[in-house]
User: Which sequence fits this backbone?
């Protein structure tokens, strides 16, 4: 078994997915047995943001430890090579964050000026707002490290690039399959988010941009604008009254259930694919020039 883990990237991915789900379940057992949480009422509205953040923190810490062990002992590589280079860290994190903010604002303003939503302002609860920032930071780090940093990284060692990206995006999509009010459209959009972030990671081997994008994508939707986030209802600085079709507003799932988000994500994927395609062509042109010079000399 240990030999298989060292030789097979797929075996390591399957092991990680199984163990991470088992550990996530084991972490919940004490909370269920002490009646702190009821299994049929395990949601942020019932248990509160404080307890949800604590549980998520424990699950993320377990995942990080598990990935660290696999990366160092079975992949035989340092942990930081998963995509945590210090080079231009703030620039990459900032760029991802800004693109996440702009993306959500574009969707929001489109809906607002098309009269598909009515917005009202809430009183800011700084305590909850800060906790939500911490919560979504943990979500972003945990999911990006798991799906892009380890799973996609290992797939790229054994599978063709675009096959690896699609498989990792499907896993990302399925990790959200238990969310409230999920629909076929929201599944497609989750898949597209996974493809977009996968295209970036496959090209740059960097996790800072995906973490920044993932964080602000969620944080802008929920705690700032007041939309549900992937089916998770959140009280934000603003409140949105939906006045249009749920296929445009996203309905109770949030903006990720909207055709507008689908259009935006397809555009972002096309931009990244185009950049990667041009980047791959440059070395070919360079090699051709060298070959032509050698032929001329002959």
Assistant:
């Amino acid at each position: 078994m240990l030999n298989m883990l060292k030789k097979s990237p797929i075996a390591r991915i399957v092991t990680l997915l199984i163990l991470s789900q088992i550990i996530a379940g084991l972490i919940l057992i004490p909370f269920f047995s002490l009646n702190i949480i009821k299994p049929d009422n395990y949601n942020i509205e019932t248990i509160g943001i404080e307890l949800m953040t604590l549980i998520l923190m424990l699950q993320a810490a377990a995942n990080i430890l598990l990935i660290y062990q696999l990366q160092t002992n079975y992949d035989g590589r340092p942990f930081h090579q998963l995509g945590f280079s210090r080079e231009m860290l703030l620039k990459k994190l900032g760029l991802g964050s800004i693109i996440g903010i702009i993306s959500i604002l574009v969707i929001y303003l489109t809906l607002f000026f098309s009269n598909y939503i009515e917005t009202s302002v809430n009183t800011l609860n700084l305590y909850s707002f800060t906790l939500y920032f911490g919560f979504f930071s943990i979500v972003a780090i945990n999911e990006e490290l798991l799906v892009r940093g380890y799973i996609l990284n290992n797939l790229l060692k054994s599978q063709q690039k675009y096959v690896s990206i699609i498989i990792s995006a499907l896993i990302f999509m399925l990790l959200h399959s238990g969310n409230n009010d999920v629909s076929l459209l929201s599944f497609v959009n989750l898949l597209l988010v996974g493809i977009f972030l996968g295209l970036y990671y496959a090209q740059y081997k960097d996790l800072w941009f995906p973490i920044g994008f993932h964080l602000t994508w969620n944080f802008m939707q929920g705690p700032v604008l007041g939309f549900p986030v992937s089916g998770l209802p959140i009280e934000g600085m603003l409140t949105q009254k939906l006045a249009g079709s749920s296929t445009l507003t996203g309905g109770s799932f949030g903006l990720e259930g909207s055709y507008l988000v689908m259009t935006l994500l397809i555009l972002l994927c096309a931009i990244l694919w185009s950049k990667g395609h041009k980047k791959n062509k440059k070395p070919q042109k360079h090699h051709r020039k060298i070959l032509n010079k050698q032929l001329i000399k002959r």
